[in-house]
Model the fold of this input.
Amino acid sequence: MKNKKILLLLVILAIAVAMVVVYFISRPPQQQELRPQTFAELPGRPKVIAKFNHSATIIKDALSFEGLSLESAKTIYSVTFSPVDPSLIASVNGNGTVKLWNINNTKEPIRILRQPGIFPFISFSPTGKLLACAGYETLTIWDVDSGRKIKSLKTIRRQFAFSSNGNQLATVYNGVKLWDIRNPKRITQIAFLPSDEAHKAKGGACAIDISSDGKWIAAGYSNGTIHVWDLQTQQLVKTLETSLYLMDYVKFSPNNKYMVAGGRDQERYSNYSVKGYIMWELPSWQRKGEVLRGNVENFVFSPDGKMCVGANDWSHYGRGIELWSTANGAPISSLPTEARDVSFSQDGTLLVTGGKDGIVRVWKLTQSQLDLANDKNDVVRLIYYLPKDKEPSPNITQKIDKTIRKVQKHYADEMKRHGFGRKTFTFETDENRKAKIYQIDENQVVIHDLQLNDIWLIFVDDSKGFSEAFMNNMIKRNTSIQNGHRYYTQYDQTFEFPKGRINVNDKIGMYDIEGFTGNGSIVYRRKKDFDWRLIVYSLKHKFDVLHRKHHLPKYEPNVVKRVFKGINSIMPWNKSWVKLSKCEAEWLDKSRFFNPNQPFFDKRPDIEINIIKTDTGSKKFQLAASDDDGIHQLQLFVTEKSEKHYRLHKLQGCRVLNGKKKATVEFEIVDADIEEGEIRMIDMHGNIASREFRIIEKTSEPDKEP
Done:
């Protein structure tokens, strides 16, 4: 009898539990108090407002120079705006054909001039009355209004510079020559700044500029030396030593706060065209920083000096035209075009570019790009994606605000747990200190400009994610095809480095090297995945700390199973996949996103690897690293196959080096079959370097370059 009562009570209890579960599943959703919702508008990308086909007659022109390839003749080597007439543009291609254009007439040039020298550089005088163009051996000066040739001067380099008052011209010929050009009909030499014997042996001066206040004249030499003279007295006032050689340019900023020099980095990449720039602060001449990345052919400052732009005509080494903040080197935006040269209009709102395709393009910068020179860097920015023909969900802005704050708090809790205080990332807020949320409508056709150094977290108000049409459109709008190559204009900031070698005992193997800088990243979550823990996990990818120790929980379509799975997920034993390891927390302690507004100037590190086989069959990885910015942490990953045959990076270990500029660390890997991996390093400013390697045992066959 007693057992029957117990059984009856259990049956009643089971029925009651089932009724409660059914009630909570089937009950109508609770009525929400609707609050006003506002969304911010994403900035648009710079637009092309004019195109000029400089190379319309290139085949005929190219034949006039023996040995000049059609591609070299077609390439636009220099472009510039008139400093006094915003509608006037000058361009010159590889064989010295100079064309003047009116921005309001893209069909025909105003005037065509000829410069007897290949691969030239072109510039207006500050008064706009003269136009000068220098190829190798000859510099030609014309009167702009009439197109009449005024003077030809001998030069051995294509670089020259006008003084800001338009009275003087500096050229390179066995040193630096200074000319009085106040009377264009009687141009006279007024000074000569000779190269010393050491510079002559190395090729002499190759880049030159005059400061806008008329105080200094600087020349860069092929051996990496820069001499700075007082322009009035011609007395040497400063000598700067760099690792650059075959210097492409020396430039003073218009506000006289900075000087930059650019060329190849001789110390680290002497046989490879990895270029960049080094910047000094004036008048202290202290080294402000350097950006030796990608392939920077030319470099210009905006008229106010707050922004600088680098021109790159190799799509696989950087991002085409890149805009940086002068103050800290932070990337601002990029233009989807390969170009050898770029120039600002006098008001700083337009850019003109020219490159291999022979097309001169004029770009209109948006106000958002102009403002970004002073904006915050390394923040998480939020986007709400609205599917086609759908209204925003009720209170979605409040939900997103609440979710991102919970994610932010979790990282703060984890950092505190590991002894780093309540350090966490920042996200963009509005004037009311609420989460600033941008909206993308699937119906929109605007090409948005997502800042390169931020994380863009997209909340997709649909269980299926982005529509196929929208994804295809996004990919199409953010890539371009040039010279047969797909060129990504927004998503990847990755650039390659030269190939090198490592030693495996006395046998030679090969490794591929790859490096990257902080870049704009996109991560999205679908409506069914707005769970804050999934966002924590997704952001690990973008913070560069995900070690793939755990796998994301899969979505459960069955309602009942999903209920019990949800209960289980909040239990202490099922939270490890969102926790930070000690190694991850140490990395984030110096991450740019946890220390916003760090300078982006980066002294490029070196990492050497030596692999030693032990008697037990394991491998010892000896990593010798150096970085003048100070090494914070080194990590070693190896690549292994999972059960699904995917190749995954697995963390083998990390070492904190507390800002040492040079260090050697050792990791031992028991698995003798490991052949690939990656070394990652973060410095004290949050700059990240990565080296991927692949070990190949040496055979009896002759070595071949990878």
Notes: The CA atoms of residues 189 and 515 lie 48 Å apart. The two ends are 85 Å apart (CA to CA). The chain has ten helices and 43 strands.
